[in-house]
Amino acid sequence: MGCSSALARLERVREQTERLCEPLETEDYCIQPMVDASPPKWHLAHTTWFFETFVLKEAVPNYKAFDPAYEYLFNSYYEGVGTRHPRPERGLLSRPLVSEIYAYREHVDDALRNLLTSGPEDEWLRRIELGIHHEQQHQELLITDLKCNLGHNPIRPVYLDKPTNPAPPVSSQTTFVAFGGEMSEIGATLTTESFCFDNELPRHSVWLAPYEIADRLVTNGEYLEFIDNHGYQDASLWLSDGWAEKNARGWQAPEYWFQQDGGWFEYTLHGVEEIDLRTPVCHVSYYEADAFARWAGGRLPTEFEWEAAAQSGNDLAHGTFADEAHFHPRPQNPTFCGDCWQWTSSSYSPYPGYRPLEGTLGEYNGKFMANQYVLRGGSCATPHHHYRNSYRNFFYSKDRWQFTGIRLGRNLDH
């Protein structure tokens, strides 16, 4: 990535983050809906902190920080940088003001432009590229965290108007496509023009026994059948930890679903809508996805099965997500990616030969490789540059506030 292209991409991504905040009122910027989520103001500041900390403070001689206190306030989890404000208390930061955070972004953006026009070393270009992708990840988190905030507000506010041309619903029929019985190459293939995160490397061979995978995601209608057939009351369908989590949290349906006047409704970012039976079910935990798969006579695919199927070239459409706006431009052709992140049965762990980035940036992915499951595919909130077959997202089994859905797999015995 050359300096001019880096600058163009940087400006586009930074502008997109602020564009996502345009529908917000000042009060919306400061709310932290739960411990796992963050206020929009924090996302705006943290993504800026990332560039200031890992690029400008090291690359620019005598760089003057916008405010030295921000190093503490907006560090997320980087132990190598120092102490940080507690994550559960991000919503208590009424100061600095929203206007000051936007001034902070402008200060850092100006410094990055000056750096990029000076012909920086390749190392700083690589870090800027990482920062761009990091900010795109936070664009998705900003949307999901905001939905968590608005969706648990009793008046269920509207973030965006409903799209005037929603995509068509998924097919009413599921086709299972057979794969496997061979060695498959898994992981990213790096070229001079490509980017991936370190957890997508190295590319390696995996033996896949014969299996089948669905050509579309599970729909709301199919999931409602699971609910009506007492899926949430049948302990035999659930992992022990999942049964305990379901009972402790009172789950009876996906996040944002509720019953009213004898019907099912859900909160979307354009307000409350009656459940559309034809669109993919979303906002389910790993435990719910696993229980549904067992009830449906299938299972969740492994991340390796998912990736091998996705890169096979078969026309396996992802379906469409008609009840939410897509927040970024979408690829023109249907792929395995989009609409909902898809739970796999694979624990988040390093690939054989995995090496994290050097220094403090090595904390980006590697230290989270425990007690989480891999999701594949991207969602309606994912920037389209992050739609790639090797992308590995990861969350805890109980998490539901992300756009998470289900694609079924099955064993294929011969």
According to DSSP, the number of beta strands is 12
Count of separate DSSP helical elements: 9
CATH C-level label of the largest domain: Alpha Beta
Are there runs of 5+ residues with pLDDT below 50, and where? 317-323
Mean pLDDT: 92
Shape verdict: globular
Largest β-sheet summary = 4 strands, mixed
> What portion of the residues fall into strands of 2 or more residues?
5-15%
Q: How do the strands of the widest beta sheet line up side by side?
A: 10-9-8-11
Helix content estimate: 25-40%
Question: Between the first and last Cα atoms, what is the distance in angstroms?
Answer: 48 Å
CATH topology of the largest domain: paralog of FGE (formylglycine-generating enzyme)
CATH architecture of the largest domain: Alpha-Beta Complex
Q: Structural class of the helix and strand makeup?
A: alpha+beta
CATH superfamily grouping of the largest domain: paralog of FGE (formylglycine-generating enzyme)
Order of helices and strands: HHHHHEEEEHHEEEHHEEEEE
The total domain count is 2
Q: Tell me the radius of gyration.
A: 22 Å
